[in-house]
């Protein structure tokens, strides 16, 4: 009798655990699918981020900017003074979202991280602005309201004739 009771108890215990297990698996599948479509406007999670990279170099210096992530290539953009490239996305479930850019401006070449979820967690909530200037790259801290210089380079003033 005890063997039947044990089998019956195990069956009902496993059956009662099946629904929560399936729920967790479905949630994880949806979260992974959300990461694949992270650049779309229709996501199921809150917390959308928008990165804007400005050309803050005057004197007619063009910035050739090419940004990407592991899953998304945003293509090369040519930015005149005060123009910007922007894109929106949601951080992935694991907090490993990373975008980086390569920049060419007046014979200066640089490659840099423009957004890393772990770094930006306490610096920008929804709007992550970057400004590329002649002396380096500046990142706006949305929570404290100031520009932080994170990148350094030197682009000389273009001679006027």
UniProtKB/TrEMBL annotation:
GO terms for cellular component: extracellular region. The chain crosses the membrane at residues 20-39. It holds the Pfam family Self-incomp_S1. The keyword Ligase does not apply. The keyword Magnesium does not apply. Keywords: Membrane, Secreted, Self-incompatibility, Signal, Transmembrane, Transmembrane helix. It is found in: Secreted. It comes from the Eukaryota. InterPro entries: Self-incomp_S1. Its main location: secreted. Signal peptide: none annotated. GO terms for biological process: rejection of self pollen. Belongs to the plant self-incompatibility (S1) protein family. This is S-protein homolog. It comes from Glycine soja (Wild soybean).
